[in-house]
Amino acid sequence: MSVTTFCHFIANRFVQSASERHFEKFSPVDGSLVGTVAEGGQPEVDLAVQAATAALEGPWGRLTLAQRTDMLHAVAREIDRRFDDFLDAEVNDTGKPRSIASHVDIPRGAANFRVFADAVKNVPTEFFEMTTPEGRKAYNYSLRVPRGVIGVICPWNLPLLLMTWKVAPALACGNTVVVKPSEETPATATLLGEVMQAVGVPPGVYNVVHGFGPGSAGEYLTRHRGIAAITFTGETGTGGQIMQAAAEGTRPVSLELGGKNPAIVFADCDLEAAVAGISRAAFLNTGQICLGTERVYVERPVFERFVAALRDKAQALKPGHPSDKSTGIGPLISIEHRDKVLKYYRRAVADGATVVCGGGIPNMPESLASGAWIQPTIWTGLPETSSVIRDEIFGPCCHIRPFDTEDEAVRLANDTPYGLAATAWTRDVARSFRLGASINAGIVWINSWFLRDLRTPFGGSKQSGIGREGGVHSLEFYTDLRNVCVST
Ligand code: NAD
Q1: Residue 354 and residue 349: Cα distance in Å, rounded?
Q2: Of 269, 290, 397, 398, which residue is the catalytic one?
Q3: Active-site option among 39, 90, 184, 256
Q4: Domains (ranges, CATH) in the chain?
Q5: How far is the CA of 65 from the centre of ligand 1 (A)?
Q6: Is the CB of 235 under 6 A from ligand 1?
């Protein structure tokens, strides 16, 4: 693997930090150096915001809707054309198996531009006719106008997918963006700069400043008063800090935050489908998906069978190199994150869990021994008060507990400060609708998981977020609604 230099992308130019500060990015697969990354500070954030502001008043702001959306379709085509480059970049940064990145991350990166380029063309406007006190007609109509420069702050688990999920609707609505990718995953945001150049997106429309959160590019971006709105995906605690920063200047925020998502398995379900679905929900992307399942409640008559079947699935996941076609599970994002996950693995044992499988670090060949590898892990027997049940772990693990009644299952599922997603497995149609209404989460999946039409609202309840993105809901966040009243 060659070592790369990741620069900021400001006004369509790749630039180093004025201070020449940089940091190193290591591979989660084998601990080798992937690249050096420019670390942005206040000067780089200032430059990026200036460029983004100028672009709003320049050629970007003068494009017609059709010209703008054509350009976003061209961005999607260019991502498709450079599919392998994006795949290499994402896999080098995250260590995830190529089979996952090629089916999930990269295609969704391109799809986000197509979906929002089309969605923005289909937003209706309001129109009201009224009569003035003098008996004349007056006409009110609504205009959706861009908010301005949007600050986009992203996590590392699905870097291209989650970044474009924000950048595409922001640009479709006529805004410009300054993106701060995760320090763990600088590559695809940088590569997208090359795509923007190639398809002729005007300078300043898409900007990237690399760096960390507090005291670095992330904090400077959220505090910058030239930023009109902030969209963030990441941990709930970070979301709170960003909300505080956005309060200066009363700027709107969209927060997509953490989860501790439940799955409920009823005895009447298709058990094979439930095991397959929950295996994906718990272990896909090495458990580093905000929508993943970490708490499973299974109706008592099928509890033992379910535990054994999920254990078999977990044990069949072979850790290995991303390019190896037989690899079933990649490493965690970093050794630091593995330390955090292992702390919960030890906590589970201390709190009295039965370790059904996993619980530690797998034996890896010498060449991969320095990677952030971890075993997929299943527990039973923990009290619901354990921090293993309460906290988001963000690793390939879940706890399984039996239940006896639907009411009990719903109560257990809802007993969490989070409310991002839930999945339930049953053949009872009436129960499906009851669960849709009674489970307190932004997304309730019945007999499915990670299945989404991108036009639907996406976001979390309780501490899992503020606001909804997806389809017209994204367009509501990325535009300001203005009423115009014309009196005749
Ligand atoms: P994180 O909160 O640690 O970091 C996310 C981003 O915020 C990074 O770019 C980081 O540099 C930046 N940041 C950190 N502190 C900041 C600050 N004070 N000001 C400005 N920026 C700051 O999250 P992570 O570890 O990268 O990602 C994992 C988390 O993301 C998990 O909690 C997961 O559930 C959540 N997540 C949520 C969704 C969702 O849609 N709800 C999707 C994916 C991930």
Answers
A1: 7
A2: 290
A3: 256
A4: 4-257+464-487 (3.40.605.10), 261-453 (3.40.309.10)
A5: 32
A6: yes
In terms of Cα–Cα distance, which of 196, 208, 172, 222 is closest to 48?
Answer: 208
194 among known catalytic residues: no
CA quadruple 99, 104, 106, 107: dihedral positive or negative? positive
CB 480 within 8 A of CB 145: yes
Q: Are 252 and 79 in contact (CB under 8 A)?
A: no
Quickly count: other Cβ atoms within 10 Å of residue 387's Cβ.
13
Tell me which residue has its CA closest to atom 13 in ligand 1: 213
Tokens 């392998």 belong to residue? 84
Q: What is the pLDDT along the chain (488 residues), one digit of tens a residue?
A: 567 899 999 999 999 999 989 999 999 999 999 999 999 999 999 999 999 999 999 999 999 999 999 999 999 999 999 999 999 999 999 999 999 999 999 999 999 999 999 999 988 889 999 999 999 999 999 999 999 999 999 999 999 999 999 999 999 999 999 999 999 999 999 999 999 999 999 999 999 999 999 999 999 999 999 999 999 999 999 999 999 999 999 999 999 999 999 999 999 999 999 999 999 999 999 999 999 999 999 999 999 999 999 999 999 999 999 999 999 999 999 999 999 999 999 999 999 999 999 999 999 999 999 999 999 999 999 999 999 999 999 999 999 999 999 999 999 999 999 999 999 999 999 999 999 999 999 999 999 999 999 999 999 999 999 999 998 999 999 999 999 999 99
Question: Residue 77: in which H helix or E strand, if any?
Answer: helix 65-81
Name residue 235's beta-bridge partners: none
Rounded Cα distance between 372 and 70, Å, is 42
Q: Is 486 helix (H, G, I), strand (E, B) or coil?
A: strand
First to last CA, the chain: 69
- Half-sphere exposure of residue 261, counting CA atoms within 13 Å on the CB side? 31
Mapped onto helix, strand or coil, the DSSP state of residue 27 is coil
Token representation of residue 160: 């291209």
Q: Is the dihedral of CA 397, 401, 405, 411 positive or negative?
A: negative
What totals of helices (H) and strands (E) does the chain contain, helices first?
17, 23
Whole-structure pTM value: 0.97
Residue 460 CA: nearest ligand 1 atom is 41
Q: Whose CA is nearest to atom 42 of ligand 1?
A: 290
Q: Do the Cβ atoms of 177 and 150 come closer than 8 Å?
A: yes
- Does residue 297 have its Cβ closer than 6 Å to ligand 1? no
Question: Largest Cα–Cα distance in the chain?
Answer: 86
The finding on whether 394 has its CB within 6 A of some atom of ligand 1 is yes
Strand partners, 299: 403
What does the block give as tokens for 309?
């079947």
